[in-house]
Amino acid sequence: MTELDEAVAVPPERMFVATDFERWKTIKERICHAVLMCTALACVLPVVAILGYLLIKGWPVLSSEFLLTNPRNNLTEGGIWAPLIGTFFLVLASLLIAAPIGVLAGVYLNEYAGDNWVTRIINLGVVNLAGVPSIVHALFGVGAFVLFAHLGRSLLAASCTVAVMTLPVIITSTREALAAVPVSFREACWNMGATRWQTIRTIVLPNSIAGILTGVILQVARAAGETAPILFTGAVLFVPIADQGWESFVPYGPHDRFMALSYHLFTLSTQIRGVRDELLYGTAVVLIGMVLAVNSLSILLRVYLRSRKRW
Amino acid sequence: MAPSPASTGSEIISIRARDVSLWYGNFQALKNVTLEVKQGLITSLIGPSGCGKTTLLRCFNRINERYGNVTTTGEITVLGKNIYDADVSLSELRKSVGMVFQRPNPLPISVYDNVLFGVQIHTPRRSLTRDQRDAMVESALREVDLWDEIKDRIHKKATRLTLEQQQKLCIARLLPLKPRIILMDEPCSALDAEGTERIETLLESLREKYTVVIVTHNMAQARRASDECIFMLLGELVEHGTTEQIFFNPGDERTEMYIEGRYG
User: Fold this and answer.
1) B223 domain residue, yes or no
2) pLDDT score for B3
3) Which residue of A has its CA nearest to B179?
């Protein structure tokens, strides 16, 4: 018998039975599995904890009346209508500015731009813009929109500032959505004599709209939640607005200062004494609820549009 | 290089290339290719992978230029016109010189819209009546022998058809543009034997009406389906002759070795 034969000579009843080393391997595998699962769970835990905590603390004030009435008595009473509608207009205006510019820029970068130094500089700009802290955006907003463009501290100035902040992500998500459309579709179009724009309008955009919209909608959540960019550019502590009638639905003009939910929460918790805790937590619940609702909407939209797509 | 023999009927030249060289960046993919493709015939481009067949094919409608850093020299004349002339519109050129790809690539819209896509990007919106459009779709689908099979499904997405039907559709969508030349880049390589056979039958029926240039890896297909063959190697045109001559009496040793399957 050779050495090899001896080494593999196992009596039939011991055949395929785990050795000590194999058992140790199995134990390590189980430990790893457990640890990895715990880290994944640890990511969900804070979300549940935060939501639960806020809900419990804010529950007493949550009602339709809380949503629909204006703050009163130095913000210590009443609801959150004025900041809520302010946030709505802020988000709407910033997206009206950022979405068209961002999407079209994304289209240019993905479909037209060649690999040259201009493109590389634009890419560098987009990446760096995405990394700028929001408080720096705020200062930029003050310089560029409030002072230089003479918009003053206003809804418009704040919307522009938020738009600049959301732009890089919209550009990037648009590019990714476009890049996911197979090149073979473009080849088919070009070979029939379609221009790039005809190809984009008839084939590429309709097939990437799901991804593009998802990217844009996710920025709604971000625009609604950020406090720093509106801090110096237009959001204020209190604006008396109409309690009823159509004026309560369009309380701010583009040049007016406005209230916003995120800033309202900030002032309630740091600037004003004697605010009941419920009011504070109730506001937080509404803010986070809005963000979660918008995110879920974008997921639903994506699922729906994907189910209709087929190639 | 053996001159093209006169035995294959047609004498009108559809595509004439003179001294065509092409570089992708620094890599030379075509070296002084000179050839004449006769009108109304099926001409096969054969040769091992990387020999420049597809590159040459893509020169004929100048689609190569969409793939980045490409330099072309020499002269290519299509239907008597030098396609590198300054007044050539790429859009018009590609109308007359259509292309079919290796993997069927119908657009993710309905069969009906696929067939009309070409026409619609070349005409102002709403310039065609509904009847005209319907007639175009029917005649194009009939020409590729697809109408009876899918006439009830023409408003469904084209990407739901079988691969063979998709490839026929890709041919059909060129037809409303009234092309003169159809370029095919291994049109059967994604299909099974039966699909291949039916596409070849279709090719036979397109013959004479259109000039067809087909790139193929499949030697048997080149032999079955084409009137003339062009053998290429390492970016050079080695031999051009009738299919019979290339397969039974090759003039170049390299052609002979390739036909016999000693490499490639």
Assistant:
1) yes
2) 45
3) A192
Its pTM stands at 0.81
The tokens describing A257, both together, are: 């200062």
In this prediction the ipTM stands at 0.83
Chain A partners of B105 at a C-beta cutoff of 8 Å?
A: 182, 184-185, 187-188
Per the domain annotation, does B110 fall within a domain? Answer: no
Helix, strand or coil, per DSSP, at residue A235: strand
CATH number at residue B219: 3.40.50.300
Model confidence at A308: pLDDT above 80:
no
A-chain residues near B117 (CB < 8 A): 189, 192, 194, 202
Tell me the C-alpha distance between A233 and A159, whole Å.
9
Q: Which residues 265-294 of chain A have a CB within 8 Å of chain B?
A: none
Count of domains observed in chain B: 1
Q: Is the pLDDT of residue A138 over 60?
A: yes
Helices (H), chain B: 53-59, 90-96, 111-122, 130-143, 147-150, 163-172, 193-206, 219-225, 243-248, 253-259
User: How large is the average pLDDT for residues B118-138?
Assistant: 89
Asked whether residue B1 carries a pLDDT value surpassing 90, the answer given is: no
Q: Compare CB distances from B105 to A184, A193, A309 and report the shortest one's residue.
A: A184
Check CB contact of B124 with chain A, cutoff 8 Å. Answer: no
d(CA A231, CA A136): 11
